[in-house]
């Protein structure tokens, strides 16, 4: 049985070591089940002058959530690839007034298989994701983004 909690905990430690900004976002332990990733963050370190969630922080955490799920997926496949965001579109719907969660899921199996096959064949592949910032069941912000995985040059 795969211990997704252990994998997520180790991944968060790695993130905090490699991306200094992550240490300042108020992230709770990641919730990862092999298909869906949730990153919960405290409002306090991500607040703006109005006392609500700062748009830049929300965008950062949503971007990080998408990047992380691609990294976790590739690591589960035994790969150590680079992942970058290619482009994104942000939509803000509601002010964030308390702690919040960024959540995303891997795409349907056929799209995920095509992504992985392209990685194997070309050493480069793109995957499109939707990441939502939620407070409870309400969507406050949505990031639609394309992430590119690149085989590391040795």
UniProtKB/TrEMBL annotation:
The keyword Transmembrane helix applies. Residues 14-150 form the Thioesterase putative domain. InterPro entries: HotDog_dom_sf, YiiD_C. Gene3D superfamilies: Hotdog Thioesterase (3.10.129.10). The chain crosses the membrane at residues 54-74. Keywords: Membrane, Transmembrane, Transmembrane helix. This is YiiD C-terminal domain-containing protein. It comes from Neptuniibacter pectenicola.
